[in-house]
Amino acid sequence: MTRTAYSLPTIDLSLWDKRGKSDAAFLDSLRLAAHEYGFFYLKGHGIPLSLNADLLRQAQHFFSLPLEQKEKIAMVHSPHFRGYNRAGLELTRGRQDWREQIDIGSEKAALTDLEDKPAYLRLQGPNQWPEALPEFKKTVLAWQEQTLNVLRQLLEALSLSLAQDKTAFHPVVNDSPYLLLKLIHYPGSQNNEEGQGVGPHKDSDLLSLILQDNEGGLEVELTSGQWLKAPPQPDTFIVNIGELLEVATSGYFRAAIHRVVSPRSGHDRLSAAFFLGAQLDSTIPILPLPESLTKSSIGLTQDPENPLFSQIGQNTLKGRLRSHPDVAARHHSDLLSPVLPKVLDHA
Ligand SMILES: O=C(O)CCC(=O)C(=O)O
Ligand SMILES: [Fe+2]
Description:
- This protein is α+β, with helices and mostly antiparallel strands.
- It contains 11 helices and 15 strands.
- Its EC number is 1.13.12.19, 1.14.20.7.
């Protein structure tokens, strides 16, 4: 683990191949990065620079379209929570975020005859693609496939680093994990105040990967109230631990709180945030960690207002319904009164 000038660790995934999969120095540095920070730079990941550049270019083309074209694929048209949301629709801890985004998941056909089936199966379905951009879908799907492979490798390495079998997470990610790619555009602040691009939060998945352009603004809270900048570094991603992995490791890995501060007036920022969740029909695996590790666990820090369900499908659906009340009202009103008991029905 090397430390940057900004003191966030950097993990070089290529070392894992070069030195052999059980290389203790590599696994120790990865484990410590996930334990102490829960937020690190990843290099040596094997994703071509050109593919990352293509993805951000497609994102830029998309966000430059006129609003009415973007609204044609607004998320509210999709029962599967896919599509575009303009800036200002999202709140984090009660404050308005200032970013527009498009959510893209696994490209699959919607399921039918769901009447007596678990409600979370409604999450499966097709994406909405912008007709005006012929290269968009191909580029996004290629990038998704390659970064999924990187995240799967990292999960294997993280498992080994905890003295588990490298396959420990295969049952929840190898068949059909719940994936979400958000392409995000943060407009510049309207005035001189420090704007909230996205407010402080933990991710609710297993592992997230962030590709950012050159603008900066991403920050991580290492100790309460102390924010460390995570500026872009050439040919790296940011990887962060999500709540599912924090729970799976009984709090040994840390789901770090992070945020994005809006760019200065006259600037803007693009990013791609890729979230690897667990398979919807699974439950969170709790790893049997050696005592040498559990004794330095920082413990679980769950949000009492947003309790985690161990059944992944319920947990994921709950998160989507909460984040997108307009989609919930239009397509899932039968689940809303009252939300949780109905979602829980099919435990
Ligand atoms: O845009 C970024 O750099 C991070 C976004 C993020 O943290 C999120 O969407 O969960
Ligand atoms: Fe996040």
